Amino acid sequence: VFEYAREDETVQELLPQLLQTVIVLFAENSREVTKSVVGFVRVSIAAMRPEQLEPLLPEVIGGLMKYGKGMGRLRSKIKIILKKLARTYSFEKIAPLVPEDDSRLITHMRKLSERAARRKAAGRADGQAPLCVGQRPG
């Protein structure tokens, strides 16, 4: 999907239907299936056009947040997916789709991105190179 979706229009047209089918597998409790579904959603989000993905956002986010509190590795992948979605659609559009229990995660991610943007802007204003994440000044 990742390799051909950007070039082949047929694959691009089939992606929303394929993603809907894979979303059904969010109900599966098997670790292997869960890991595969999260991986496929990550690739699909990168390959799909925003207008194709937008109608599927509630199901995708709802399904992903089901696993947000669980397995450690999946949690980081889910955060990466949410960051990509927020970059594409904004935190304001994504926040209402996240369950109430997980709304603090979105708020935290929004604050981190705003802080990073402020640091980047401050670095550019001083004429310095922007700091990398986790890098300390000095």
Describe the protein's architecture and organization:
The chain has 138 residues and is an all-alpha fold. 66% of the residues lie in helices and 0% in strands. The protein is built from seven helices and no strands. Helix 1 packs antiparallel against helix 2. The mean pLDDT is 83.
Global structural class: mainly alpha
Element string (H = helix, E = strand) = HHHHHHH
Head-to-tail CA distance between termini: 44 Å
Largest sheet: none
The Rg value, from CA coordinates, equals 17 Å
Shape: globular
What amount of the residues lies in strands?
under 5%
User: Helical amount among residues, as a percent range?
Assistant: 55-70%
- The average pLDDT score comes to 83
How many separate helices?
7
Query: Which segments are poorly predicted (pLDDT under 50) over 5 or more consecutive residues?
Result: none
Number of strands: 0
